[in-house]
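>> received
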Amino acid sequence: GDTGVQKLLRDLRASGKIQSTALVAKSTRSELVAILEEAVNRGLVDHDSSAMHKFLSKYGLSTDCSGFVSQTLNFLMDGNKVVDDKDNFDPDNTNAASLKGGQGEITKISRSELKPGDTMHLNGHIRIIVEAKTEDKIIYYKTAESTAKEHGKTGQDGFMKRWWKFDGTTQYSSFENPNGLHPASDDANWVQTTESNTFGRYKKLG
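>> returned
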């Protein structure tokens, strides 16, 4: 029950395996793994991906969009997966708006300049670019994000990747082949989007 979950989280915090930020949608991947492993050990959840997903969702144990992007940028800067005082961004106090191009240490850039580590802002949401290339005057870019929205292919919420393309006038997105090469330019799975995005680059990443 809830008491068992609360005790589990208290024990993990006391042991240093998770920090308090894990309880406000700012969990790191290692913290989520630690929570699930201990929950399975204590019989609080079955060792089943669907059951574990529902468990995390029920108790709000996740990483929100800005927490995910700030943790990723920190990793790119120092190479460790630990939230510590060496990090450039505090995942607990970094919101999507502060990671938008043109804000603070984030320079506004164009799609043609995109490279891994850049940010893609949508009002109230932030993604990070993990791949970008231009072929036959079409810009293709892949994003990673943490979202409560339903994934277009898996039907689950949480972490997702997708491809985007921009032909000079119109932007499209596709959930096809998110872990591989971008879909062909004429692939039927491209869906036109009307998002208003701003792209940015953390100045220290150059």
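>> The longest strand covers residues 125-135.
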